[in-house]
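Quick one, tokens below:
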């Protein structure tokens, strides 16, 4: 048994104090380390940089401890139990790290718990000490198994091994809790942070959603599940999956409140976030790429399959909402339209293939810069649309992606077998008849290893859905002449600061760059609110002068406007669908049902 004692030592200084006791250390000298990344988020984060101090002892006597690399320590040989005491700085609100102040405590095990080399399969105990100097209303929420805890959740917990220990985040503070059952399985929604959320409404809708997901796979792979949500400001959003829980952050304005008008788009996004992380309990936590089986947490674990594990999940997160009746078909198609539009507005889709995007996740996705849209594509975004395209393609052959997902669960998830890099293509070929194998090979070559656009208009037409692409706002404005665009993206706020300048666009050809702040167009002051509108009134080919600050230097740019691209997608239900189209649509999106999320 490896024991970890956790104390909220100094909330004002954001310091946890941890003691790790190793009862049978390596007689040659024990090696310990802290993970460099957390499963589910593919970036080297170097959690060890937050360890402030560390000391080792054995039977009350100091033991020499030497740091051998950025996250590894070597202890001198000792006879008896080895104790390591260390302080961890925690002031990161994200779901991936740790946080501590006088209002809330939160941590992932990858931030606090040293990995004891050679004891990865040893059972672990975690004792969470009650903070005497903090609010007595504080409670604990975690998916870890409680052995002996008080009514507020402080006390001792158990984990079968180190992997399980770091897979159970811990939320501590003033918690609002609602219990519900889905598929006969106990679930909880636990909310921290300031909010006035209607938790009964949220629990009702999550019950509907969770019941749908359990029915989709045919069973739940956990005996209980916790949604741990931090209600934050408008600039906070994220989620991270775990085997029997998820950590979530979203704007409190997204949550329904009694007596207030519902933020429908925000609430739909919240339910989509919950759906995404919950789906991961099957797809990623149990259906896992071979590269993640026994992956070393001190270095990258490369795979070309994140388009499957994140892209497919992104496809099913919103599909589950419409199938379970939580959103309407119109809302689902609007959400799908927005995804297609984002893809069309990403020049990098013609540069980086989807498998390359997956492989490069460790160095690119989580480190965006001003050139990101020009050089790469998100495996979340394009992966979800490849899932759509594959699903619609399979349905033309009386199959579906649903069958693929259930086969993945039976063959890989339930058996714990790692999914090989070519497994998806082989599995699809097995499910479908041999005569369409060549067509599917061409599809995968195009979608995964090529950079051409997906034939979504062609694929979705038989389902009674009209696919239209137009210049942004052209239909609403009923423009009589072609408008112009600079090919830029602006930061939120008053000043016209460019975050991105798209490849080949008028702004790039004139020399404008990400980070520039535009202050005038043809001698007239501009802002983020009117810059693109002023440009859109110009005819393509018009010469304009733009003044902008680059750092602290005022610069002038001579721009020749270009025609605004047709990159805004709209998907609408056909007003006169054929009976065959209606049947296909029902099979895809599910039968029409009441929409509780809109009530």
């Amino acid at each position: 048994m490896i024991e970890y004692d956790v104390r909220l030592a100094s909330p004002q200084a954001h310091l946890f104090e941890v003691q790790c006791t190793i009862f049978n250390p390596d007689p040659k000298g024990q090696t310990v380390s802290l993970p460099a990344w957390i499963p589910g988020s593919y970036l080297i984060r170097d959690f060890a940089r937050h360890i402030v101090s560390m000391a080792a002892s054995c039977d009350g006597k100091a033991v020499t401890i030497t740091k051998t690399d950025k996250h590894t320590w070597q202890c001198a040989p000792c006879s008896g139990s080895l104790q390591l005491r260390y302080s961890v700085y925690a002031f990161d609100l994200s779901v991936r790290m740790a946080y501590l102040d006088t209002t809330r405590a939160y941590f992932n095990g990858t931030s606090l718990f040293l990995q004891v080399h050679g004891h990865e399969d040893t059972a672990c105990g975690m004792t969470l000490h009650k903070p005497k100097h903090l609010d007595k209303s504080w409670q604990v929420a975690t998916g870890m198994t409680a052995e002996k805890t008080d009514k507020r959740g402080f006390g001792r917990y158990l984990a079968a091994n180190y992997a399980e220990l770091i897979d159970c985040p811990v939320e501590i503070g003033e918690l609002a809790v609602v219990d519900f059952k889905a598929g006969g399985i106990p679930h909880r929604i636990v909310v921290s942070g300031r909010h006035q959320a209607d938790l009964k409404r949220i629990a009702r809708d999550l019950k509907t959603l969770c019941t749908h997901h359990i029915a989709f796979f045919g069973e739940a792979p956990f005996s209980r599940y916790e949604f741990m949500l931090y209600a934050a400001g408008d600039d906070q959003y994220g989620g991270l999956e775990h085997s029997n829980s998820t950590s979530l952050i979203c704007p409190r304005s997204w949550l329904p409140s009694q007596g207030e008008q519902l933020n429908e788009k925000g609430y739909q996004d919240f339910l989509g976030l919950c759906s995404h992380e919950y789906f991961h309990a099957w797809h990623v936590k149990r259906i896992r790429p071979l590269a993640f089986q026994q992956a070393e947490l001190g270095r990258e674990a490369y795979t070309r399959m994140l388009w499957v594990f994140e892209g497919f999940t992104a496809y099913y997160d919103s599909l589950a909402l419409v199938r379970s009746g939580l959103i309407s078909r119109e809302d689902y198609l609007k959400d799908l339209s927005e995804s297609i539009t984002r893809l069309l507005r990403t020049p990098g889709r013609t540069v980086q293939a989807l498998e390359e995007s997956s492989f490069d996740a460790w160095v690119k996705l989580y480190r965006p810069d001003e050139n990101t849209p020009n050089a790469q594509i998100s495996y979340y975004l394009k992966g979800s649309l490849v899932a759509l395209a594959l699903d619609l393609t399979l349905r033309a052959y009386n199959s579906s992606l649903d069958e693929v997902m259930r086969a993945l669960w039976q063959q890989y998830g339930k058996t714990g077998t790692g999914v090989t890099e070519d497994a998806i293509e082989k599995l699809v070929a097995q499910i479908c008849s041999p005569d369409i194998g060549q067509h599917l090979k061409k599809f995968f070559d195009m979608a995964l290893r090529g950079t051409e656009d997906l034939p979504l208009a062609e694929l979705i037409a038989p389902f009674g859905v009209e696919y239209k692409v137009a210049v942004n706002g052209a239909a609403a404005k009923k423009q009589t002449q072609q408008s112009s665009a600079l090919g830029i993206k602006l930061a939120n706020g008053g000043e016209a600061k460019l975050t991105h300048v798209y490849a080949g666009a008028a702004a790039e050809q004139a020399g404008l760059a990400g980070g520039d702040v535009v202050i005038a167009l043809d001698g007239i002051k501009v802002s983020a609110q009117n810059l693109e509108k002023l440009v859109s009134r110009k005819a393509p080919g018009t010469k304009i002068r733009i003044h902008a600050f680059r750092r602290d230097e005022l610069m002038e740019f001579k721009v020749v406007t270009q025609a605004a691209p047709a990159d805004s997608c709209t998907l609408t239900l056909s007003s006169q669908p054929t009976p065959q189209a209606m049947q296909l649509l029902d099979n895809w999106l599910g039968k029409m049902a009441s929409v509780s999320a809109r009530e």
